[in-house]
């Protein structure tokens, strides 16, 4: 192939391809949305600063785009500056936005892992569990994704961290109080 | 003013909050149903939140928990600015609740409420939260420390970095791995905000990368990625270390808890490969990579799970980046690429097409073995795959096949509907077509075809380029192009395209009076067709037509009474154009 031709071909910058050799500094995930088939948002977590109006606009647009997708279609789509990776589990759509240079298959795996953890925690999780215990869904998400990066590769540790918080720690607090009194009297 | 029904629902919701009997989930279900009734009525929600605030201090622990859940719910809903302000007022209340909490659950709930308020309404709350957060980060209880570190990640202000930094750095040496990894992530988020404050950052990362616990090592990879991206040349020893870690991970030396569907720590493997993309290429570490990559590919290629494909995707990326097409690794990568392209899952096909485009940019001949798959993908019902195929076709264009490929791409573009994609792709297509500017006749007709295919969503770049080429064209080329414009005006056109053609005729038309009359006829007929389109403003269409005719009449003198008559008849049905008709007659 001639040098000029190679220049022509290499000068074409395909959209959506990793501009791999000059990727921007970025978080893995920009935001995560959970919404029902009726378009009701059940959970949203934003990993970058964005105003309320913009959030509402983004949410509305994305919900309408994803709900129009047919069942056997690809789980990835390009939207503005992001790649959207979504997956439907029963009546809920889990939707993540990642950078152009990110691995979409890995993001799909991240979503699946989150669902597995929710399932193990709630026991056969359904949409109602997330609606009425959304704070627990947020706790689990916080243990799993922090500042837009995956922080916990081990599923069991995530569950243990959340279950620790569930247990009322009054006994621990009492034990500590007792220990501190004993220390004061030099009897520890 | 609240309606009667709203009033009743509001009072019911307030009673629900006050009630201390019944199962908690039943109460909350009714409460959220009540809240969702209010969704369209900001005034009611504002009143509700103010009411909660007044009730908060005097209520029981059980009720306080409910109130906080309501506050989290409201702060996630993106209400108006009044409600945001009201929610901001909950900051001191929540912080007091956190400080007075006796149980881990209450503290966690308090912190979750705080992070929700910070996300929706950052303002002053982050400054109020600092002291409580610092106190809990310095606590002896590891669960408290991890909770507080979670919150510290949300305290996104440059002023707070010097305050939090010493405490967080101290936690990097905690005995618990979960504390160390969260402290590292908090440090990373501070580095992204204000790198100038973190003087010892690189040392901390080096220590974390060598940590005995894989959790901490995994957390350090995101930090290493940012640091290497910023300055690849001063971290030349990192690739060697990363390849060593990668070897250990691939061989399965991590605890079983880090395995996912038979693949050991896939996230770590992928992260390491991404970091290697950013590193400066050195023959020494490049030579040690093929064994590891081969091992990775061997372990993943018989695994049908999605996570295996994710790792293979990154492997192929790395191979294509680092090795020449003649290398054995490149050939192995192509073999695995076939697995992606022949998968019956749309996701794998889309990823495979993306990789194939990458490969084609390096060596176009690699694409020939996948011709059948490319042909099939062009007719695939999924828009994502069609789009990916179009991008691949762009990469395949050569001096020999540009006409065929461009015409095919324009046919495909016609079937897309998404405005954002159509606009950007029409522009890219025009840029690619311009590479073959030596064939100007073909170029202008291609640009016209792009405008037809893209319809209203065409990029302005395309219309600008058509006009530019017309301005540079010779007189023989112009007359040939005007014949084409004549043909186009007979058919269906978008308004945007009509504007461009009218502009061309007005500025560049040099035909004799006899031939000009038929051109003007079709111009007016097309204007009439455009006016019939309900979403167009009649004045705009009339303006375009008249500007074109005016420019034409300035250049070519003659009697155009019949033209005036025809224009008047075309515009007559539109009452708003009566003033314009008078101008025409004049």
Search tags:
heterodimer, A: 188 residues, alpha+beta, five-stranded antiparallel β-sheet, two-stranded antiparallel sheet, globular, disordered N terminus, B: 586 residues, mainly alpha, 31 helices, 1% strand
Describe the overall structure.
Chain B: Pfam families: Adaptin_N (PF01602). Chain B: InterPro entries: Adaptor_Complx_Large_Subunit (IPR050840), ARM-like (IPR011989), ARM-type_fold (IPR016024), Clathrin/coatomer_adapt-like_N (IPR002553). Chain B: Keywords: Membrane, Protein transport, Transport. Chain B: Its main location: membrane. The complex is a heterodimer of chains A (188) and B (586). Chain A is α+β, with helices and mostly antiparallel strands. Chain A is built from 7 helices and 7 strands, in the order αββαβββαααββαα. In chain A, the strands form 2 sheets. In chain A, strands 2-1-5-4-3 form a 5-stranded antiparallel beta sheet, with helices on both faces. Chain A has a two-stranded antiparallel ribbon with strand order 6-7. In chain A, helix 5 (134-144) crosses helix 6 (155-166). Chain A starts with a helix and ends with a helix. Chain B contains 31 helices and 2 strands. Residues 20-26 of chain B have low confidence and may be disordered. Helices cover 73% and strands 1% of the residues of chain B. In chain B, helix 10 (161-170) runs antiparallel to helix 11 and helix 26 (475-490) runs antiparallel to helix 27. With 586 residues, chain B is an all-alpha fold. A two-stranded antiparallel sheet of chain B has the order 1-2. The interface between A and B is large, with 71 and 103 residues.
Mean pLDDT of chain A: 73
Strand tally of chain B: 2
Regarding quaternary structure, how should these chains be classified? heterodimer
Shape of chain A: globular
Largest sheet of chain B: 2 strands, antiparallel
Measured between the Cα atoms of the first and last residue of chain B, the distance is 58 Å
Beta-strand fraction estimate of chain B: under 5%
How far apart are the first and last residues' alpha carbons of chain A, in Å? 82 Å
Give Rg of chain B in angstroms.
33 Å
Instruction: Determine Rg of chain A (CA atoms, Å).
Output: 22 Å
Output the strand order for the largest sheet of chain B.
1-2
Low-pLDDT windows of residues of chain B: 20-26
The strand count of chain A comes to 7
Strands across the major sheet of chain A, in which order? Answer: 2-1-5-4-3
Structural class of chain A: alpha+beta
Our count of helices of chain A gives 7
Number of helices of chain B: 31
């Amino acid at each position: 192939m001639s040098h000029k031709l190679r220049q022509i071909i290499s000068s074409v910058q395909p959209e959506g391809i990793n501009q791999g050799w000059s990727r921007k500094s970025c978080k893995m995930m920009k935001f995560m949305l959970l919404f029902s088939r009726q378009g009701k948002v059940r959970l949203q977590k934003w990993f970058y600063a964005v105003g309320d109006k913009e959030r509402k606009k983004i949410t509305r647009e994305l919900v309408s785009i994803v709900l129009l997708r047919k069942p056997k279609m690809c789980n990835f789509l390009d939207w503005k500056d992001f790649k959207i990776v979504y997956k439907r589990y029963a009546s809920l759509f889990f939707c993540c936005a990642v950078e152009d240079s990110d691995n979409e298959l890995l993001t799909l795996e991240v979503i699946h892992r989150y669902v597995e953890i929710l399932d193990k925690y709630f026991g056969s999780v359904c949409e109602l569990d997330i609606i009425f215990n959304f704070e627990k869904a947020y706790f689990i998400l916080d243990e799993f994704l922090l500042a837009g990066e995956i922080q916990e590769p081990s599923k069991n540790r995530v569950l243990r961290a959340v279950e620790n918080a569930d247990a009322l720690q009054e006994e621990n607090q009492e034990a500590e109080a007792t220990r501190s009194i004993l220390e004061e009297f030099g009897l520890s | 003013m609240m309606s009667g029904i709203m009033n009743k629902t509001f009072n019911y919701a307030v009673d629900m909050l006050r009630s201390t009997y019944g199962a908690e989930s039943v109460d909350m279900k009714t409460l959220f149903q009540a809240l969702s009734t209010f969704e369209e009525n900001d005034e009611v929600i504002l009143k509700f939140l103010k009411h909660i605030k007044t009730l908060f201090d005097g209520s029981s622990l059980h009720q306080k928990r409910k109130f906080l859940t309501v506050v989290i719910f409201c702060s996630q809903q993106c209400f108006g600015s009044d409600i945001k302000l009201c929610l901001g007022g909950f900051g001191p209340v929540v912080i007091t609740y956190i400080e007075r909490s006796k149980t881990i659950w209450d503290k966690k709930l308090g912190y979750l409420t705080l992070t929700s308020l910070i996300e929706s309404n950052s303002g002053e709350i982050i400054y109020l939260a600092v002291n409580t957060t610092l106190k809990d980060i310095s606590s002896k209880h590891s669960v408290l420390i991890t909770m507080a570190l979670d919150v510290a990640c949300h305290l996104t202000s440059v002023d707070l970095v010097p305050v939090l930094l010493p405490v967080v750095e101290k936690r990097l040496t905690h005995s618990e791995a979960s504390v160390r990894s969260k402290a590292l992530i908090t440090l990373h988020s501070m580095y992204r905000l204000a790198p100038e404050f973190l003087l010892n950052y690189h040392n901390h990362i080096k220590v974390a990368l060598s940590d005995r616990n894989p959790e901490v090592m995994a957390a350090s990879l995101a930090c290493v990625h940012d640091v290497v991206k910023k300055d690849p040349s001063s971290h030349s020893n990192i690739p060697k270390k990363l390849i060593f870690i990668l070897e250990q991970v691939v061989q399965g030396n991590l605890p079983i808890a880090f395995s996912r569907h038979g693949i050991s720590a896939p996230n770590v493997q992928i992260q390491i490969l991404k970091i290697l993309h950013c590193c400066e290429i050195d023959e020494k570490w490049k030579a040690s990579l093929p064994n590891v990559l081969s091992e990775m590919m061997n372990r993943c290629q018989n695994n049908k799970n999605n996570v295996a494909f994710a790792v293979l995707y990154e492997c192929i990326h790395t191979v294509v980046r680092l090795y020449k097409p003649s290398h054995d690794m490149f050939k192995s990568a192509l073999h695995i690429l076939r697995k992606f392209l022949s998968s019956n899952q749309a996701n794998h096909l889309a990823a495979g097409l993306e990789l194939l485009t990458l490969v084609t940019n390096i060596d176009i001949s690699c694409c020939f073995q996948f011709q059948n798959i490319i042909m099939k993908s062009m007719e695939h019902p999924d828009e994502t795959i069609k789009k990916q195929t179009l991008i691949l076709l762009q990469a395949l264009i050569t001096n020999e096949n540009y006409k065929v490929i461009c015409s095919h791409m324009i046919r495909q573009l016609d079937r897309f509907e998404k405005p954002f994609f159509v606009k950007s792709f029409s522009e890219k297509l025009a840029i690619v077509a311009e590479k073959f500017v030596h064939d100007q006749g073909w170029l202008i007709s291609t640009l016209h075809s792009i405008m037809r295919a893209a319809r209203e969503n065409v990029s302005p770049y395309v219309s600008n380029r058509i006009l530019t080429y017309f301005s540079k064209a010779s007189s023989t080329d112009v007359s040939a192009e005007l014949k084409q414009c004549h043909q186009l005006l007979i058919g269906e056109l978008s308004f945007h395209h009509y504007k461009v053609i009218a502009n061309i005729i007005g500025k560049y038309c040099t035909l004799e009076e006899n031939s000009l009359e038929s051109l003007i006829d079709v111009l007016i007929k097309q204007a009439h067709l455009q006016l019939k389109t309900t979403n167009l403003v009649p004045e705009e269409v009339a303006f375009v037509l008249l500007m074109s005719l005016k420019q034409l009449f300035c250049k070519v003198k003659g009697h155009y009474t019949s033209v005036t008559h025809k224009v008047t008849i075309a515009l007559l049905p539109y009452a708003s154009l009566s003033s314009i008709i008078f101008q025409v007659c004049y």
